[in-house]
Amino acid sequence: MLTVDFSRFPLAPGDRVLDLGCGAGRHAFECYRRGARVVALDRNAEEIREVAKWFAAMREAGEAPAGAEATAMEGDALALPFPDDSFDAVIISEVMEHIPDDKGVLAEMVRVLRPGGRIAVTVPRYGPEKVCWTLSDAYHEVEGGHIRIYRAHELLAKMRGAGLKPYGTHHAHALHSPYWWLKCAFGVNRDGDDAALPVRAYHKLLVWDIMKKPLATRLAEDLLNPVMGKSFVAYATKPHLPADTADTARGRETA
């Protein structure tokens, strides 16, 4: 289940892509399938081991084209182990709401992104997320949980403040909002067979939708995304330095 829309975030074969806070690796896998040279980075060692296994399985199955590369590694989003201008694209999906120093993370992403490169940022949308916080303290008052809810204009302002130029936004996963409202209402920590019947039933619907992708639910989600999409997605570029600024910077380097 992808949150980033790759028709709005185009990749070319051989592009260097960082999936920052990759989690289970869903966006990293898609970039790999598209022929990119991918680095999937996360602070969770267990998840990184699983992502590395899936990369290996994809290589064996021939799911990635010739020239594609994939690496999974542990790392700190506030101190990325890469030189400046290392990547053509950076994805950070459902991560920034967890990190106290979100401005620091944006600064690091901008540092490692080449001029002209693209960034995709996804966060929980304000409205659906506010319902979850209202229904359940346990939803967000956990170690490593969500520490803020972004309004769209706030996130875009922070991206601009980091030197990025936003070029598009949209919402995603409207059908997932009711699932999380049900989870919060009936007990966010109740999973599997212990979950309430409405939660289990809705989960089955979501799994069916993800696996089958029927036209009816795809159309329904497209219609509902502007109203209740669970995620807010923003795309931006890192502008090239103006020629005079670039010349000044080069002069400092050679001085």
UniProtKB/TrEMBL annotation:
Which parts of the sequence belong to the Methyltransferase type domain?
A: 18-120
Q: Tell me yes or no: is Transferase among this UniProt entry's keywords.
A: yes
Q: Could you tell me the superkingdom of the organism this chain comes from?
A: Bacteria
Under the GO molecular function aspect, what terms does this record hold?
methyltransferase activity
Which example biological process does GO assign this protein?
methylation
Could you identify this protein by its name?
Methyltransferase domain-containing protein
Entry's transmembrane regions: none
Which CDD domains is this protein grouped with? AdoMet_MTases
Alphabetized UniProt keyword annotations: Methyltransferase, Transferase
Q: Enumerate the InterPro entries for this protein.
A: Methyltransf_11, SAM-dependent_MTases_sf
